[in-house]
Amino acid sequence: EVGEPFKEEKAVAKYLRFNCPTKSTNMMGHRVDYFIASKAVDCLLDSKWAKAKKGEEALFTTRESVVDYCNRLLKKQFFHRALKVMKMKPDKDIKKEKEKGKAESGKEEEKKSKKESGKDEKTKKEKEKKKDGEKEECKKDETPGTPKKKETKRKFKLKPHEDQIFLDGNEVYVWIYDPVHFKTFAMGLVLVIAVIAATLFPLWPAEMRVGVYYLSVGAGCFVASILLLAVARCILFLIIWLITGGRHHFWFLPNLTADVGFIDSFRPLYTHEYKGPKADSKKEEKSESKKQQKCDSEEKSDSEKKEEDDGKTEATRNSGTDGSGGERHSDTDSDRREDDRSQHSSGNGNDFEMITKEELEQQTDEEDCEEEEEEDTESRPSHEKS
């Protein structure tokens, strides 16, 4: 036998009812509120009962302690366990979808057979290109910046579960305990008192009745003055607009009828706009100035690019001159001879010539003779000086 709930249990259940996130759905033809077990455990672990007081231990220290306490609440019928049952589509809709799928598949097969008979290698290549393009588009769609398609949520119903146990997880529990919130209770109490006071108005003292009369007259005058102001500001706008030929737009209390707070509806006091030829010329000047700024920025970017190109060409020229100077100093007699040979070959019109062994021996003999003559010339002045 289950006894009546204690005050502490009622307080915990009330806290859980108004602080744990709940959702509503249909169950056995009735609208009910349900919650998930794991969220209820998290909610109670963040409550005041999870903090130790002076001289007392905390009621909830671990998730297991919360589960045990919730089992007590379930036995005392604050809520009960339910089972999710997904709504199945009717047989007619399923048959229609199957028939549509078969018809579409048959049409696609016929199209494929016709295309394969009349297609050549070029069409196959085009198919491959299209597939590559589709893959790239799919990759682009999968990027984190692109918005994803909305997923259709499957509808479900709730049914009472056979095993009435509280488990920490994604289990669903339906609320039976439905206390009245303090705000709704206070609002209802105020409305009841106001109705009773209005019905007992003839029994009020004379001074109170006179005071209420003047308050009602003042409220009526205030509402009437606001309505008159709204009409007067429209008339003033029309007069100024007609006199100035539509150039001046003057609004007194522009936010009077706007969807704002009571104080903001009286500020600013007025607004004025001039819509004439000067205003158009100013707009044109602003647009022209923006265009000039864009052109200047583009010219600057072009000039910077030209300067960079000039700097690169100068650097290449300097490197070329340095290299040529070094080569001039490093030129030898053998290089000159090779140049002469290349000129000789280019004069004949052929880049390469076939040389026989005899010609090679003659050339080597000539080079040896020239070297001996140079050595003799160098040795002669030294003997003369001696």
TrEMBL record:
<keyword id="KW-0812">Transmembrane</keyword>
<keyword id="KW-0811">Translocation</keyword>
<dbReference type="InterPro" id="IPR004728">
    <property type="entry name" value="Sec62"/>
</dbReference>
<dbReference type="GO" id="GO:0031204">
    <property type="term" value="P:post-translational protein targeting to membrane, translocation"/>
</dbReference>
<keyword id="KW-0813">Transport</keyword>
<feature type="compositionally biased region" description="Basic and acidic residues">
    <location>
        <begin position="275"/>
        <end position="315"/>
    </location>
</feature>
<feature type="region of interest" description="Disordered">
    <location>
        <begin position="275"/>
        <end position="386"/>
    </location>
</feature>
<keyword id="KW-0472">Membrane</keyword>
<keyword id="KW-0256">Endoplasmic reticulum</keyword>
<dbReference type="Pfam" id="PF03839">
    <property type="entry name" value="Sec62"/>
</dbReference>
<feature type="transmembrane region" description="Helical">
    <location>
        <begin position="212"/>
        <end position="243"/>
    </location>
</feature>
<feature type="compositionally biased region" description="Acidic residues">
    <location>
        <begin position="361"/>
        <end position="377"/>
    </location>
</feature>
<keyword id="KW-1133">Transmembrane helix</keyword>
<protein>
    <recommendedName>
        <fullName>Translocation protein SEC62</fullName>
    </recommendedName>
</protein>
<feature type="compositionally biased region" description="Basic and acidic residues">
    <location>
        <begin position="325"/>
        <end position="343"/>
    </location>
</feature>
<keyword id="KW-0653">Protein transport</keyword>
<feature type="compositionally biased region" description="Basic and acidic residues">
    <location>
        <begin position="90"/>
        <end position="143"/>
    </location>
</feature>
<comment type="similarity">
    <text>Belongs to the SEC62 family.</text>
</comment>
<feature type="transmembrane region" description="Helical">
    <location>
        <begin position="185"/>
        <end position="206"/>
    </location>
</feature>
<feature type="region of interest" description="Disordered">
    <location>
        <begin position="90"/>
        <end position="155"/>
    </location>
</feature>
<dbReference type="GO" id="GO:0005789">
    <property type="term" value="C:endoplasmic reticulum membrane"/>
</dbReference>
